Amino acid sequence: MMKSILIVEDDITFGMMLKTWLGKKGFEVSSVSNIARARKYIENQETDLILSDLRLPDQDGIDLLKWMNGQDKKIPLIIMTGYADIQSAVQAMKLGARDYVAKPVNPEELLKKISEALLEEQTPATPTASKSSPKKVVAKEVTESHRTYLEGESEAAKQLYNYVGLVAPTNMSVLINGSSGTGKEYVAHRIHQLSKRNDKPFIAVDCGSIPKELAASEFFGHVKGSFTGALNDKVGAFVAANGGTIFLDEIGNLSYEVQIQLLRALQERKIRPVGSTQEITVDIRLVSATNENLEQAIEKGTFREDLYHRINEFTLRMPDLKDRNEDILLFANFFLDQANKELDKHLIGFDSKASRLLMDYHWPGNLRQMKNIVKRATLLAQGSFITPTELGTELLETTVTNITSMALRNEESEKEHILEALRQTGNNKSKAAQLLNIDRKTLYNKLKLYNL
Ligand SMILES: Nc1ncnc2c1ncn2[C@@H]1O[C@H](COP(=O)(O)OP(=O)(O)OP(=O)(O)O)[C@@H](O)[C@H]1O
């Protein structure tokens, strides 16, 4: 049956956009622009889920929740809020809001949270932790079938997956280190897939987005009534992951206090839900990730050294995309296939200029950025091939006007870049050197080397 969603949003344009988009995703959607109308609607119509802005002209989303609690209306509600209002979102969660998303809303994230919330309605969480599905704030269980995998053929990739294959079947704690978007979560999941625990849950917790005061409850769960507004028992990520793997993303972001609790849980393999007197024994494999230098954090006193050794029995270092030359076009085509499917397009590939741009770009946002750029290009492309136009200005700017940031990789492309820099500067060698981010003397040497 079609699920019905009520949007409570006073920004009419945004509300409309959301409504159309969710309609296309197969939901029956209505929208209202204030709390009074929302109440009226909920009283009269079957509603499976509510998406509410925090601040509305008459009252706010929190008032709506309080009213719903009073009426004993148990409809999952997701709060949409700006980052400035995260505190209120936390308050809303304590009052029983299912989840929150930050504005500007990332559609995929929202969709995921909606599906999770609706799924949980069908299988409501029970107080006995063992087999229930946890109420998730930021923890998410990932279904195997959603992931398609590409390892790559570069030296860096081969080495990485060689290590992954070695460490996966063990019970060692793995710390994955790498820049944002390099695929840390993917590798964490791969480790789980290749382990003996692969028939048990994989639970990912984004430590970067848990409000400090909810962290303990997120990890260890809580019992009803343990703090104001803890309306139900909540299963923590550690119990949800029992027998399987827990993935702690952005582990460097945990407060010192939570680090101590985490260390204790890892040492004793036991946890105690907030407000409970009973300890629960857990069997978990820990994989964590960070894009920070934790050794520096230890020196600064913001990360505990004992915890660091606990989580880091084995380190995996994710290569940056720009250092995976041989993989760039493989991934671009892989993401193109994905985008073709998602957008119902039938593009064949990238034309030669577009391929060149992909190869030359420095990819600061790594695989995630590439996936986004390729998807956008797939949407925009008119013909059968993606051309430089659809790849967008980010890529064009670096190659045409800002040669500086371009790695001078091999002789062929280096020669091309030098000629291009000279052309752009009207053969002014000092300026060309500046553009290439090398000193004038080096440029002269290179001109000689290449007979230019
Ligand atoms: N091996 C892979 N095969 C296919 N897609 C991948 C692979 N690795 C990463 N991706 C894609 O790239 C995106 C970024 O990956 P992921 O979220 O794992 O990165 P991350 O390093 O954990 O990022 P962050 O540090 O920002 O959390 C994902 O959306 C995923 O679709």
Descriptive report:
Keywords: ATP-binding, Nucleotide-binding, Phosphoprotein, Transcription, Transcription regulation. It comes from Bacteroides faecichinchillae. One of its GO terms (molecular function) is sequence-specific DNA binding. With about 450 residues, the chain is α/β, with parallel strands linked by helices. It has 4 domains: about 5-120, Response regulator (Rossmann fold), CATH 3.40.50; about 140-315, 3-Layer(aba) Sandwich (Rossmann fold), CATH 3.40.50.300; about 320-400, Orthogonal Bundle (Helicase, Ruva Protein, domain 3), CATH 1.10.8.60; about 405-450, Arc Repressor Mutant, subunit A. The chain contains 20 helices and 17 strands. The strands form 5 sheets. A 6-stranded mixed β-sheet has the order 6-8-11-14-7-15. Strands 2-1-3-4-5 form a 5-stranded parallel β-sheet, with helices on both faces. Strands 9-10 form a two-stranded antiparallel ribbon. Helix 13 crosses helix 15 and helix 19 crosses helix 20. The longest helix has 19 residues, at about 325-345. Residues about 125-145 and about 400-410 have low confidence and may be disordered. Adenosine-5'-triphosphate binds near residues 149, 186 and 249.
Number of domains: 4
Strand content: 5-15%
Structural class: alpha/beta
CATH superfamily of the largest domain: P-loop containing nucleotide triphosphate hydrolases
Contiguous uncertain segments of 5+ residues? 124-146, 399-409
User: How many separate helices?
Assistant: 20
What is the second-level CATH architecture of the largest domain? 3-Layer(aba) Sandwich
CATH topology of the largest domain: Rossmann fold
Tell me, briefly, the overall form: globular
Strand order of the largest sheet: 6-8-11-14-7-15
| CATH class division of the largest domain | Alpha Beta
Oligomer state equals: single chain
Rg over CA atoms, rounded to whole Å, is 25 Å
Number of strands: 17
Give the end-to-end Cα distance, rounded to a whole number of Å: 70 Å
Which ligands, by name, code or SMILES, are bound? adenosine-5'-triphosphate
Largest sheet: 6 strands, mixed
Helix content bin: 40-55%
Q: What is the residue-averaged pLDDT?
A: 84
